[in-house]
Design goal:
Oligomer: single chain
Radius of gyration: 13 Å
Mean pLDDT: 91
Shape: globular
Strand order of the largest sheet: 1-2-3
Length: 90
């Protein structure tokens, strides 16, 4: 989505209880900024189709994309964050 709709703590096995919200447009930056400021993780894993702008991330980062993702986004990730920062699920 373009904004944070909810923040939920995940615990093993409760993935079925997670409710998804959104409108279809994507802006990863608000979620990245929230995580960096409030959660302070060592790294961030982003699942996306790549039809969005590349966020600015100050942590170790891994982008996970499907085989139907935006190839230009993948190329941009590799240029900015390095080849090992992106994987495509086939």
């Amino acid at each position: 989505d373009e904004t944070i709709q909810s923040v939920t703590k995940y615990s093993k096995g409760n993935w079925k209880a997670i409710k998804l919200f959104g409108t279809g447009n994507t802006d990863l930056q608000p979620a990245v900024e929230y995580a960096q400021k409030n959660l302070r993780p060592e790294g961030i894993i982003l699942f996306t189709d790549g039809f969005t702008d590349l966020p600015i991330i100050m942590r170790k980062t891994l982008f996970v994309l499907s085989k139907h993702s935006n190839k230009e986004f993948i190329d941009e990730v590799k240029t900015v964050y390095g080849k090992s920062s992106v994987v495509s699920i086939r």
